[in-house]
């Protein structure tokens, strides 16, 4: 697994060229997933999250480009980043600054939602 992180793509190398599918079924090769489930339906959120976790943790540069879709990765990142190791998260956010931005935006939105929900209640005169 150490070789993966040394082989992590930089934003310049991929220019966010994550061309993986946005729908359908993805079958991962043996070098990415050597036991357990190897086929993932992108139409099922849990399966899609599992696929992305696996590819981020075990995939090589070409696997990221081939199996991950930029829009899906950005949409899932605020949750996905909590399901992977800190090291993998840091490597990916360093390589793709838009991921860190997506996480910060989601956190700010969540904080704003809490602030609105916990604000003073309007009184109603009858």
Automatic annotation (TrEMBL):
Q: What is the lineage of its organism?
A: Bacteria, Bacillati, Actinomycetota, Actinomycetes, Kitasatosporales
Protein name as annotated = Transcriptional regulator
Region Disordered: which residues? 1-20
């Amino acid at each position: 697994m150490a070789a993966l992180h040394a082989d992590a793509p930089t934003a310049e190398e991929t220019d966010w060229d994550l061309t993986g599918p946005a729908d359908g079924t993805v079958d991962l090769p043996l070098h990415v997933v050597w036991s357990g489930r190897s086929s993932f339906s992108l139409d099922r959120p849990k399966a899609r999250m599992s696929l992305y976790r696996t590819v981020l943790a075990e995939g090589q540069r070409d696997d990221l480009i081939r199996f991950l879709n930029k829009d899906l990765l950005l949409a899932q990142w605020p949750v996905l980043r909590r399901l992977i190791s800190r090291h993998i998260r840091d490597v990916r956010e360093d390589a793709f600054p838009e991921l860190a931005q997506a996480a910060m935006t989601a956190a700010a939105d969540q904080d704003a939602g809490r602030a609105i929900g916990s604000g003073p209640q309007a009184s109603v005169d009858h």
